[in-house]
Amino acid sequence: MRLTALMLAGACALTAGCAATREELANVGRPPALTPIQDPSMDATGRRQVVMPMPASQTQQRSTNSLWQPGAQQFFADSRASQVGDILTVNIAINDRAQLSNQTNRTRSSERSAGVSNFFGLENLPGEVLPQGFDPSNLVGMESEGSFQGQGGVTRQERVDLTVAAVVVQVLPNGNLVVAGRQEVRVNNEVRELIVSGIVRPQDITAANTVRHNQMAEARIAYGGRGQLSAYQQPPVGDQVLGIISPF
């Protein structure tokens, strides 16, 4: 079984690395290739049309001899996010520290005995069959004793300071806004990504169109990376496979 697991792990590792190895060997002695000239929007969006949540379309009514144009920005209008498709900034400032210590002690002992003093006049009958010294008043005796002791402690400290723009994806019937945002930054071969989502009250959005993460209900915040550095910080694929299937 262990030999089969090793063979499977090796096959997985070879399959994952074959494509990268062929590409590296094909470019030996060649300078890095430049990207051909193309539409910048295709490169930024991955050659796909961007589809985002949009507010419901409204019929524009034009008034003759009016100084105001439909859809024009108003000087005194509220610029805070309020409808689907609007953008707001989420400020993430996490500085948590927790220290827990638990200790438990438990001890228990018990003793039980049972017997028959009267049994239709036959209480002395077992004494004629069983060995001498049999006492019908003390047929069964049980004793038990147990003890338990446990101790645990947790010390944790986290600090995250980030800012990300999020989009309003839904307006709930009570007026609260469901927002979601994602940010990716690639440096060389490492991608750092930040994902945030939650429910925001319109009155918690500041005049600068920002909101703090601790004012978001059902907040989901994920910050991590993927790439060469993140891959080297994880156990190899073979070790992960053996760790899953190995019973020892």
Q: How would you portray this structure in words?
A:
By secondary structure, the protein is of the alpha+beta class. It has a domain at 80-96 and 157-234. Helix content is 20%, strand content 39%. It has helices spanning 2-26, 40-45, 125-129, 228-232, 237-245; strands at 87-114, 140-171, 177-187, 190-200, 210-212, 217-227. It has a six-stranded mixed beta sheet. It starts with a helix and ends with a helix.
Number of strands: 6
Report the average pLDDT across residues. Answer: 76
Helix content: 10-25%
Biggest pleated sheet: 6 strands, mixed
* End-to-end gap: 12 Å
From the spread of the alpha carbons, the general shape counts as flat
Rg result: 36 Å
Report the sheet-strand fraction. Answer: 35-45%
